[in-house]
Amino acid sequence: MTALPEALSELVETAVGSSVKDCRSASGGCISQAAVLVCVDGSRYFVKWNYSAPRGLFAAEAEGLNALRETGAIKVPEVVLVCESSDEQPTAILMEALEPAASRTLADSAELGRALAELHRVHAERFGFHIDNFIGELPQINSKADSWGEFFLNNRIDYQAQIGRERGWFSDECSQLLKQKRERISDALNEHSPVPCLLHGDLWSGNVFWAVAGPALIDPAVYFGCREADIGMTQCFGRFDARFYGAYEESFPLEAGHEHRIEILNLYHLMTHANMFGAGYVASAVQRLRTI
To answer: Rounded CA gap, 193 and 67, in Å?
Structure first.
């Protein structure tokens, strides 16, 4: 058992129309507390809360979850409630609690690959998103652009470099390297004329929930970008299994040269991890910048 803050408990019970009878601690990621709630009427919900989260963190998460869910391409938990912090309560998000599968099979991995391919067929006219959001605890800028290379450099790499300078690891040498390689990065990312696709945005293994109803996506950092960015993230910190990639390729083959572009795209995630966690991620980010 874990204790749900009293003011938050009252909001939850009003929103769902039933009293909470059980509150079990759950994983809420690196920055938030979380629990699975069971109500008197038998309904189950998942709640995350945080007393020091940046304003708008969970509202942006809800916007992303809703954008993914509306496609119908893959299972995504339905958001019930979002509330900002006050003197009495923390920032919080309440959503349906998905029932975890007892085990995961190769068929489940293939289903995830096909579902992600379907998600990536949802297109927009421009790169970006209608709101800025977050990746982990860091702001993610989604100002719209017509060019993928422009969007990636301005909204992803430059912004993380700015944070890195403030946190002391993105050196003058790094700034000079980035200046030298801007045109190379932009040309490489634009060479295959990518179409803006709806992306999860932070697709590592911890953001896939293996539910009884099938694989589901959680904790998104949604925007419209090149689909290679999602595939790249699945390879950045330990690859997904071969059945996932095989099913994705069968459904929506990647274009020639994607391996090289993914090396560039994953610089973003190495930089966000350097900014959030420091240590070994700094060395990895600097080395990737050097080798692009």
So the answer is: 24
Q: Look at 29 and 158; give whichever has higher pLDDT.
A: 158
Instruction: Return the domain boundaries, the chain.
Output: 6-96, 106-291
Cβ atoms of residues 155 and 128 within 8 Å: yes
Instruction: Indicate which residues carry an active-site annotation.
Output: 202
SS3 233: helix
**CATH no., domain 6-96:** 3.30.200.20
CA distance 118 to 65: 16
Which two tokens mark 181? 């390689």
**Residues 6 or more apart whose Cβ sits within 8 Å of residue 45:** 12, 16, 36, 37, 39, 80, 94, 95, 96, 97
CATH of 106-291, one of 3.30.530.20, 3.60.110.10, 3.40.50.300, 3.90.1200.10: 3.90.1200.10
DSSP H or E stretch at residue 93: strand 91-96
Of 83-87, 106-110, 155-159, the one with minimum mean pLDDT is 83-87
Confidence (pTM): 0.95
**6-96 and 106-291 agree in CATH topology:** no
What would the pLDDT profile of 181-224 be if each residue is shown by its tens digit? 999 999 999 999 999 999 999 999 999 999 999 999 999 999 99
